[in-house]
Amino acid sequence: MRNETNNQEIDSREHCFSKVPVPEEILDWLKVNSVLSIVLSDYKKRGSSFEDILQNDARIVSYEKSEIILRKGDYGGSVLIPIEGTVRVNLEQSQEHRFARKSKLEKRSWFSAIGQLFKKKKTQETFSRVVSQEEISGSAGRKPRLNTDIDKFVSQNLTRRIGIGEIFGEIAALRRCPRTASVFAGTDCKLVEIRWQGVRDLLARSNEFERFLEDIIGDRRHQIFSFVNMIQNLSEDVQRTISSKAVFERHGSDDWNRNFRKVINSDKSLLDQEAVVLNQGHHMDGLYVVLNGFARVTRKDGGQESTTGYLRPGDVYGLKELTRMDERGEDEVAFHTIRAVGALDLVIIPKSDFNEHVLPEIQKGIETGRSNEEGYISRELLDFFVDRRIVNGNQTMIIDLNRCTDCDDCVKACAVTHGGNPRFIREGHRHAELMVATACMHCADPVCLVGCPTGAIHREANTGNVIITTNECIGCGTCVESCPYNNIRSVEIHDAAGNPIINLETGKPALKATKCDLCIDQPSGPACANACPHDALHRVDFSDISKVTRVIEKITG
Amino acid sequence: MTIRQPKPLILLGLILVFFVIQNYLDIKSGELVSLAYESGWLLLGSFIILALYGMRKKFPFLPIGKTSSWLQLHLGIGLLSGYLFLVHSGFAWPQGSFEVALYFIYLLLMGSGFIGWFIMRWLPKPMRADVENLHPSRIPFRRSEILEEADALVLKVEEGALSERIIMGYTEVIRPFLNARPGLLHSKRHNELEIPTPIVQKLALYLPPSILFSTESSRPFHKLIREKSDLDRMIVHQRWIRGWLFLHVPLTAVLFILIALHIFLVLGFSSGGAS
Questions:
Q1: Which residues of A28-62 are buried (b: 16+ CB within 10 A; e: fewer)?
Q2: d(CA A7, CA A214)
Q3: What pairing do the DSSP bridges indicate for beta strands A286-301 and A316-317?
């Protein structure tokens, strides 16, 4: 009888963060002993109660001593609050390598690569190794851990204890940027993890909590600059000074990836749907640095507004205007309009601080925005790239339709290197003689990473490629739903005998997410690009405008 | 047609190889028998390199240069082999049936290769000119859909003065066309109606097409005929793009057999004099 009640409870929690509810006593404890007590001090009861929000968006997680809780550079969509044990944050940059993900994908030898040709091709994803039920359901106890004596590590290195009831992980969760520090379990510990949707709901209901989090982020926000080319080389003191005076802004919608298709198919002009960040002709109040997301740069000439460039994470806008202002000693206006494409997080460094701290440090070769002032790429094509958010790609697969003969050698090559199952579709958005294939673009803003419960989908530290560690994937489909480009698929997995592996908990076939892995384990790199005999398939990094231009020139002649 | 400049390194390498071979053959040109041997072995070497291109395509995961670079090398060596072939044959017409066969097969192989290269560069653009957003694998499904749509349309033709003729035209001309598979060449297009001219001519027996496609109920037929003819054009283009390989690859196999026989005969019957 008790089991039946439990099962019903579990079924009704299908859309919750965890199938297991947060125990009442822990909720009560949180209300009194954690930062969440601030929420209750001015909680505006609109719809859901505090308890409802936590029951829906929180779960209890446990870590054993020396296990890694957060990795610097990983993406995450949740905040954590320790409720038991010791949790520590590493402050020694030199020790970060200890937290780095151990790449399980080593390059194959030539012998092993050639061996792939003789393997029997399967029509489905097959695992020759035994896949445990724990791996399928995500209850496997394999969490990454620090391979060192943890007490010695703590005594020899600079770490800070995160107090019981304190909050951490909020910058990455709320700004959707990579984790800014690595956190590990100093002893066996328990934490409450709240996904970003829950934090957003709490923020909407408590001004006090919003102010509290902003203060915390403000104190730590200089860490955000570690990902911005122009500022990362400045000293930490200067970064702190800049960040204390800088204005952080967020434009557009957090859920852009979910409503992306609706937006591009709507009758309204895309320009009208995008939030204006800066208007052409308006006073330049500072340097605009993109932290996350994308911006469209447009210019109005003769009444007609057209796209002239785009900004990606780490790009800046306003350098030209501010430099000219400095040279001439008079106020300057913005030469272009900046619009948020999807969600855009940016920081505006006031012009006085820019002049004092950043301008002297600016050296040749610093990346600014990706402008197309030379006009190598047609404005229609630029619109196509920005409208479809293709500028997000670091490895976008672009096919020259004037040269592609439909021979499918690229697909066959992909199949050979992935056990007979190609990881991309040679179809996609078209513009004139160019097609963007349905293949993972290894995005600059990898929205697929946000919300992965096991961290199976991650960005490789060395290469920047977005990779799925298959044995950590529990097939929940979060990344599949999050990818706005339909570039990730859920597939049923089979054992060596070809039988589907069943998740005994749900009674359904077990799933895993698959996508292009850029042939990370192959001696050659991406087999698709290697295989094209007609030089029709290109992998394009939109952060490098010169390379994009070269490819477009090749295609359009 | 999109032709790109050859990769400089490959071009430079080929020119260098050409001059080295030329110089080597010049030295050997005094010794007629030896020249035939040397050029023969060089020719065999070039054939082996040409055949390696097919092998390279099987190993896309090996870091041995992009397949597109190999194709350029394949084309360059193909040209070089032509020169070597002429040197080997002494710039003379073949004599005897075996030599004629060898000569003929080689010319066919080289010709098919260059025609193939031309097809690959020229056809992709017109192939996609009419059908933009359809994957080739979906063509058969779309063709059956077109036929179903047309069959449904004809049932809706309202009774009237022209209805009988429209139905006749549909049964005798339009439906067989929609049901037919394209051949190796596509039909000429009618200038105004942009559908195959033979269809327009056949339909004229029942109704002038300008009248047929002008009524509300018959206009959709024109759209369907046009779409089917566009799909046919795509299929025809694809047949050419793939079809030339059905000549090139078997000819390669035949040539290798003949070369093996040629070497066997030359070495077997030279009674040591040549060496």
A1: ebbeeebbbebbbeebeeeebebeebbbbbbbbbe
A2: 40
A3: antiparallel
Q: Å from A241 to nearest chain B CA? A: 49
| Contact check, Cβ <8 Å, B61/A523 | yes
**Helix, coil or strand: residue A548:** helix
Q: What is the DSSP string of A474-527?
A: ----HHHHH-TT---EEEEEEETTSPBPEETTTTEE-EEEE---TTTTSTTS-H
What are A485-497's pLDDT values in tens digits? Answer: 999 999 888 887 7
Sign of CA dihedral A388, A391, A396, A397: positive
**Residues A221 and A240 placed together within one structural domain of the fold:** no
Residue A223 has pLDDT above 80, yes or no: no
Distance between CA A405 and CA A115 in Å, rounded?
Answer: 29
d(CA A533, CA A549): 22
CATH of the domain at A218: 2.60.120.10
Q: What is the ipTM of this complex?
A: 0.85
Residues A221, A246 share a domain: no
Does A170 map to a domain? yes
Q: Confirm or reject contact between A434 and chain B (CB < 8 A).
A: no
What's the rounded Cα separation, in Å, for the pair B121 and A399?
15
What is the Cα–Cα distance from A200 to A203, expressed in whole angstroms? 5
Contact A367, A360 (CB under 8 A): no
Say what percent of chain B tops pLDDT 90. Answer: 48
- A137 within a domain of the structure (yes/no): no
Contacts of B133 in chain A (CB under 8 A): 430
Tokens 């030199």 -> residue: A94
A401, B128: Cβ pair inside 8 Å? yes
Closest of A179, A277, A193, A265 to residue A223, by C-alpha: A179
Amino acid at B57: K
